[in-house]
Design goal:
- GO terms for molecular function: glutathione transferase activity.
- This protein folds into 2 domains: 3-78, Glutaredoxin (3-Layer(aba) Sandwich), CATH 3.40.30.10; 89-214, Glutathione S-transferase Yfyf (Class Pi), Chain A, domain 2 (Up-down Bundle), CATH 1.20.1050.10.
- 57% of the residues lie in helices and 8% in strands.
- It has 8 helices and 4 strands.
- A 4-stranded mixed sheet has the order 2-1-3-4, covered by helices on one side.
- Strand 1, helix 1 and strand 2 form a beta-alpha-beta unit.
- Helix 1 (12-24) runs parallel beside helix 3, helix 1 runs antiparallel to helix 6 and helix 1 packs antiparallel against helix 8.
- The radius of gyration is 17 Å and the shape is globular.
- The N and C termini lie far apart (44 Å).
- The mean pLDDT is 97.
Length: 216
């Protein structure tokens, strides 16, 4: 049975799953969800995912959503023993911590700052930008003296975080304040398998959306 991924190209969490699947060598059957036409609110989609979010993975009748849960599921089931999600308890705990930092701090602060401007026409909130910058300072600290966010090797945490960080390109955030992040970002773009196909194209779609909505 194929693994179906319901996704939207511009979505950062969707791009994280595409990056992880490529790195784990897992084939996905991609099913586009058109948020503009509210396909995520259709009864058949809500039956799969009552939260009606993207991405959603369906594996032989088993549906799971939330990108970080999806990518760890893929590693556990289809790439057991992969260094992308190490089995040694301390190494795995570090990867998990960075994944939780992504969803609970970095991506949360990014979405809290930028999405009200993008989707609701809200004015920029400088305090929210400052909180986003604080989270980037933490990421910069995590990368001090090491190549990747959870140690010497690339892991799922890098792939999840790079999807979030790349989505900040259209914002006024000054990346030069975070030299370790800049160095790491450049490294991931060069070394993550299929980076351009899995993240670059979707990122451009997101940038196009930003240009369209902010010029209204």
């Amino acid at each position: 049975m194929p693994l179906d991924l319901y996704y939207t190209p511009g979505s950062s969490p969707c791009r994280a799953v595409l990056l992880a699947a490529r790195a784990l060598n897992v084939d996905l059957n991609l099913k586009l969800v058109d948020l503009h036409h509210q396909e995520h609110l259709k009864p058949e989609y809500r039956q799969l995912n009552p939260q009606h979010t993207v991405p959603t993975l369906v594996d032989d009748g088993f549906a799971i959503w939330e990108s970080r849960a999806i990518i760890t599921y893929l590693a556990n089931k289809y790439a057991k023993g992969s260094p992308l999600y190490p089995e040694e308890p301390r190494a795995r705990a570090m990867v998990d911590q960075r994944l939780y930092f992504d969803i609970g701090t970095l991506y949360q602060r990014f979405s809290d700052y930028f999405y009200p401007q993008l989707f609701a026409g809200a004015p920029e909130d400088k305090e929210k930008l400052a909180r986003l910058e604080d989270s980037m300072k933490l990421l910069d600290k995590f990368l001090e003296g090491q190549k990747y966010v959870a140690g010497p090797n690339m892991t799922l945490a890098d792939l999840s975080l790079v999807a979030s960080v790349s989505s900040m390109e259209p914002t006024p955030l000054n990346f030069s304040k975070f030299p370790n992040v800049v160095r790491w970002y450049d490294e991931i773009k060069k070394t993550a398998p299929g980076y351009e196909e899995a993240n670059g194209k979707g990122l451009q779609a997101f940038k196009n959306l930003v240009d369209h909505l902010l010029k209204k």
